[in-house]
Amino acid sequence: MKRMLHNREANSEYLPVFTGPDFPLARRGIAAIHDASLEVLANTGFRFVSETALQIFKAHGFRIEGQRVYFTERQIRRALAGIPKSFTILARNPKFNILIKRGVSSFGLGRGAVNMIQADGSIRRGTVEDVIAASKLCQMMDELEHWGPLVYPTDVEPDNVYLAAWQAMVKYVDKPYLYASRHHIDFVALAYGTTREEMARRPDFTRSYGQSTAVVQSPLSMFSEDCEDLIEYARCGIAFNVASMPVAGTTGPCTLSGLVVQQNCENLAAMVFAQLVRPGCPVYYGAIGGRADMKSLTPRFGSAEARIIGRAGVQMAHSYGLAVRGGAGITDAPVCDFQAGAQAMLHILSVLEKGPEFMPSCGLLGSYVGASLGKLVLDAELITQAKRFLTPMNPTRERLAVDVIAEVGPGGHYIEHPHTLENFRSEFFVDSIFQSLTYEQWGASGRYDAVQLAREKAQALIEGYQRPPLDQGLEAEIDAFVERHWVK
Question: Is 362 helix (H, G, I), strand (E, B) or coil?
């Protein structure tokens, strides 16, 4: 373990700051979390508010008391051993297929905000046009590898929200698709040119038609609808992550170690359940907990503690050989400002260094409550910057430039040297948003800040959007499906 010493203040004790592969949990810490999780699942159990789920556990010999299911270490290990360690999430366009495997990262559109933050900082509810705009940006930006409903449209009846959003998904994007519940399987399967039953009959689940999320209600509970969703995802071989989002101090223990124990228990219980339904179904760990603001009791997912929780969750998942779903660019800031950028970059750097592997949170503000198209573009910029920062040097003989240094010699310059002309384009990252102007140049160019430039880039990308090919027969089927199920 590497150790750095940081002087908090003059004449104070030194505060140790740890980095490296053993942060925040050393090997003993991982074992302690695992052992504590086994104790909780064996003695406290996990509540399944679903008669169907309870019957599945009963049929496999699990101890059940009321709605609580109790797990043994052997049952847990048997289930973990059957989960595929890697699998592919298919896109309508095969070039956008995503490999889910430990150490392979993918970023995607945020999900589920209710508000859009305007250019002037004002707030309004999301619309179908916002969903379409975000979908176009998802398609146009290489950094965004999978779709999500960045904001829920409120200009349609509540019963039609998902139909409207998912219709935009299929029409404007050909990257991997998302299911929000088992009720979407037939619609999304249609877009992939398959059916629910054809998916279920496959003998090999290492390729998944899209992906989804199994929701856990902290603490230690799954309700009937969520259980039914998980059952159908597992039966059809649809890859899904476990959405365990405990909040330290409210829906989880206040101590971060205790919070990670509960998060681990919630993942393990859901994964065991899935493997009982369909052994070998593709599932991956969820490490997206946060902590409460104890003054207002609101969750804070952009905090430093949330980053520690996420990284500890990654360590636990990797200790089981599993890939992880987390987030990227999460901030507690309600608008695009310095706080939003600082928290987003801290988050993106941490996930690129250690994982998780699947990160669908770009474009979000206010701990998942708000969204911004400008923030979406800024997150993509941060991802490319962070990837460049974490790219290792390649000290080949040509790159060491010993001969070039000798040719230029003391007092010379490299501006016109062929070595510079040959290498600067590949060696230097070119910003698309961030500026490096003098104050006078900045004033003369319009006094735009990064947020304004990001909004302009978002608008330019939307205006230049090119819709991916969509078979006319499939588009007609999609529209007909929406029409049949639209609640009038």
Answer: strand
